[in-house]
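Board notes (copied after class):
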Amino acid sequence: MYHSRKKKSYKGSGRKRKRFMIKMNPQVDPTVSKMFTQIGVPVASVFKPDKFQLDAVSAIKKSDCLVMAPTGSGKTWIAEESIQHFLKLGHKIWYGTPLKALTNTIYANFKKRFGEENVGILTGDRKENRDAPLVIGTTEILRNQLYDSMHKGTDLKTDFVILDEAHFLGDEDRGVVWEEIMIYLPPRIPLLMLSATIGNGEQIASWLHSIRGKECVIINEETRPVPLYPLFLNPLGTLYPLIAKSTKKNKTMLHKKVVEHITKKDAPQLSQMRGMPPIGEIMKVLHRFNLLPAIFFLKSRADCDKAVELCNSEILTKDLDRKAKLNERIAELVKNSPHMAKHKQLWILENLAVGSHHSGQLPIWKIIIETLMSEGLLDAIFATSTVAAGVNFPARTVVIFNSDRFNGIEFAPLDSSQLRQMTGRAGRRGMDNIGFAVNIPGKFLDVRMIAKLINAPSTNVNSQININFSMVLNLLLSHKPEQIKKLLDNSFAAFQLAHDKKKRWYKNRDDNREYLWNDFLYHLDFLQIEGYVDNIGNLTEEGEWTSKLRIDSPLLVAESLKMNLIPKDDPALLAAIIASFVNEREFDDDKIDKKQVQKKLLTSFIRIKSQLKPFATDMFRKGFEVKPLFLKPAITIYSWATSTDWERTVKQSGLAEGDLARLIMRTAENLRHFKSLKDNFPEVTEAALTSVDLLMKEPVISYYE
C-alpha cells in the first residue's frame, strides 16, 4: 500500500519548495530478477565490425547504399570508413544532417577523427573551413548548393554525399528538402543514406534506381547491439516483464500481472502531485535495481521542469566522488556563459544529478545536459518524446509515461518508428549488456498499444514534396518549364502514386501523377501575373534576385523591397521587421499598449502591413499560404537587438528561452540571405549583416563555444 510522508522542503534555485511524496516498495518479479543478472558492463574486446557494416562500406564504393540499422548499431562507423576511403582518393565529401545541433556534434567528432584541417561546417549560423575535403552541414545548405550549381551550369564540388537520419525524407515540414536533394543530385555522386526507422527501404531504393540509373543497395540490420527488455512498473513498486513469452509466432502477449493490473477496477494508481507521478520514488526503484541512468519521456515541457523538482539528493549523496566530478565538470561547461552560471535549474543539476531537456531550453543548456549524460555524470534526463530523434545521449533505461506525442497540432498516438526512436536510447553500446524500457501506468499510457509497437517494424516513409514559390523560382533559374515537368515526374511522390495502389499515404491531392505539375503551373501563373516570370517562362530581373531569397516568405519580403518598405538605415529595426516575417506563432497584438512601442518601429510595421495587404490578400484568395504579420515578435527582436538584457527580453516576449533563441536564430538566418542581394540592394544588405551581429550574442551563440 501507499504510505504518506510528512511534507518536507529542500533547497533549490535559492528558494524553498514543498513536496508530498508517495512511498514505493521496490520489488521485482522472479523473471525480472533473472534478467537483472545480465546488467553490467561488457567485457572489453578488440573492435570487430559486423558483417552488415562491412557490406555497407563495400557497397558504397560501387553504388548508392541505404543502411537501415538500430540506433547505436554502428552506422557512424560505416560513415567514417566510407569517408576515409573517399578522402584517400582525393575526393570531397558532403555529410548532411537534419539538425544544427547534430551537425555541431558530428563536426566536433570528425575533427578529432580526420583532423581539424580536413573538416568544415556549413549551417545557417556557422561557416568554417567551407572548402575542406569533408564538409558537415544541414540539408538546406546542400539543397541550395544544388540550386546554384544547376543555375551556373557547373558541377557540384562534391564526390560523395552522406545523408544522416534519412527517414527525414518523410518529415512533413522538411521532407521536401531531402527529396529535392535526391532528385537533383548528379548520378555520378555516390549517395549513402543512414537511418534507424524506415519501413519501406526497398521502395525508396527502387525509386532512386529509377531516377539515378544506378543500383541502390539495401543494408538492413534488425539486431540491436544492446538487447532491449521492456518492463512494467506496478504503482506499488514492483517491476514485471511487460511482455510474456508466447508459443504463437509473431504474437505479442502482455504478462499476466500486467493484464491483472490494467483490467482490475480497483487497481492501485499513482497519486498525482501537481499533476505528476512520484518521480522521486520511481527514481529510487530504478536506483535500487541498478537501472540508472535513465531518460524519462514526458508529455510536455512543463512536466519535464516539474519532474526535476520532484527528485531528491539521496542517490547522488551516496557517491560523493561522483558529485565532486559532476560539479567540477559543470563549472567547466558554464564558465564561458554568464547566463548559464545563474540558470534557474543549475542547483538541481549540481545537487540532484538530473536535468530537464526540451525545446524550451536554450541550446547551450541542452548541450550541457547532453554532455554530462554522455559522460555518465547524470542519473536522469527528463525530456519530451519529440527530442528522441536527433539526440545523442543514450542511457541504460528509458521510462515511458505516454503512448502519444504532440505533433505540433494535437496529441496523436505513437507509431512504431517513434517508439523505436525512444527505445533506441536504451542500452549504451560498450557500457551495457542490456537496455530497459520501463512503462509507467497512467491515463496517458495505452499499455497494450506499447506492447504491440515495441517489436513492430518501422513505419513507411512517404513523400512530403510540395511546390512552393522558392522552389519554382530556383528551378526556373536553370530549367525551362517542360524540363521542370521531367524533374517532378522523378519525384518520390510520383513513384509512389504509380506503384502504391492503395495510396493510403496520399493526403489532399488529386489521385494522379500530374498533381505536382498542375501545382507548379498554378504557382507559375501567379508569378507571371506579378511580374516575376515572363510569358515564356523565363525569370524577370525581379524574379532572379527574389530566387536568391531562400527564406520563409520570399514573395512578401520581395514585395517589401520593391516598394522600399524594408528599413535600410537602422539594423535593429530591420531585424525587428524580418522577425515578423519569420515568426510562426499566434500573438494577440490587441493587448499591446501601442504607446509603449518605439514610434519608428510601430510606424514601420504599420506601413509594411498596410501596403502589403492587397498583395497578401490576392495570394490568400488564390489559395497560397500567407503568414499573418504580428507586432509582438518585432518588438521582442528590436528589444534584443538594442539591449543586452536577456532576462528582460525573455520576460517581455512571453516566450520560453529556447523559443526566443530559435526566433532570434531564424531571424538571423533570414537576414544572412540578403547578402546575395548586394548588387540590387546594397544598403539593405549592409544593414542586414550588421543586424546579424546585433542578434547573435550570448547566451544565444554560446552553445558552440
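Comment from the instructor: Residues 599-621 form the longest helix (23 residues). The radius of gyration is 27 Å.
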